[in-house]
């Protein structure tokens, strides 16, 4: 089954404790993105990657890092989480054949930073 | 810079009644337009997209949208809604050609009343 898998689905952590949210897709997609969803603000892009070792900032990259060492994986790293990073996070992927859309989204990761 | 406006944050409608969810965009260049649906505790699913050609686009679950370039709108419609259509709907835009950042609207919650 074609899918984007995020882990964990839910996470509560404390301020300053480094964490990683994993994202993996099994569709051989070149393009992957991370978004955060906040009430009243919709989805805002954090980072995106056009291929292995190629990443770039989105609209709200501050406080986040990403890496793309393998095509299928695109982890989101919060080196020192703060309460304002409490949000719902989504990973998405698409391929050049579907490059006109963000075709597949993960189920989301709800992060709470206390 | 591109932007998307969804003026209605919530739209209540009775079951079997028609519905229109409004979306207006702003961009100085040609764009692609999308509607996504998000059911509770799930990721986003593509409903339909406009890339070029016919301005009336049909999507899944009986939804359709019409691209109006002069009014810079891409409103989503359904002639008869069902309880199962209760969800949040997001309009999105990106520049045409190549891989470009997708900008989402703030979302419209459709509440179908039995």
Describe the structure.
The complex is a heterodimer of chains A (114) and B (114). Chain A has no helices and eleven strands. With 114 residues, chain A is mainly beta. Chain B has 114 residues and is mainly β. Chain B is 0% helix and 53% strand. Chain B is built from no helices and twelve strands. In chain B, the strands form three sheets. In chain B, strands 2, 5, 6, 10, 11 and 12 form a six-stranded mixed sheet that branches. In chain B, strand 8 (64-68) and strand 9 (73-78) form a beta hairpin. The interface between A and B is medium-sized, with 25 and 24 residues.
Q: Kindly, what is the distance between the CA atoms of the first and last residues of chain A, rounded to a whole number of angstroms?
A: 36 Å
Number of strands of chain A: 11
Largest sheet of chain A: 7 strands, mixed
Apparent shape of chain A = globular
Structural class of chain B: mainly beta
* N to C succession of SSEs of chain B: EEEEEEEEEEEE
Structural class of chain A: mainly beta
- Number of DSSP helices of chain B? 0
Please state roughly what percent of the residues of chain B sit in beta strands, choosing from under 5%, 5-15%, 15-25%, 25-35%, 35-45% or over 45%.
over 45%
Roughly what is the average pLDDT of chain A, rounded to an integer? 92
Low-pLDDT regions of chain B: none
**Main sheet makeup of chain B:** 6 strands, mixed
The rounded distance between the terminal residues' Cα atoms of chain B is: 41 Å
Chains forming the largest contact:
A-B, 25 and 24 residues
How helical, in percent, are the residues of chain A? under 10%
C-alpha geometry of chain B: globular
- What is the C-alpha radius of gyration of chain B, as a whole number of Å? 14 Å
Could you tell me the number of beta strands of chain B? Answer: 12
Strand composition percent of chain A? over 45%
Q: Given the structure, what is the number of helices of chain A?
A: 0
Helical amount of chain B: under 10%
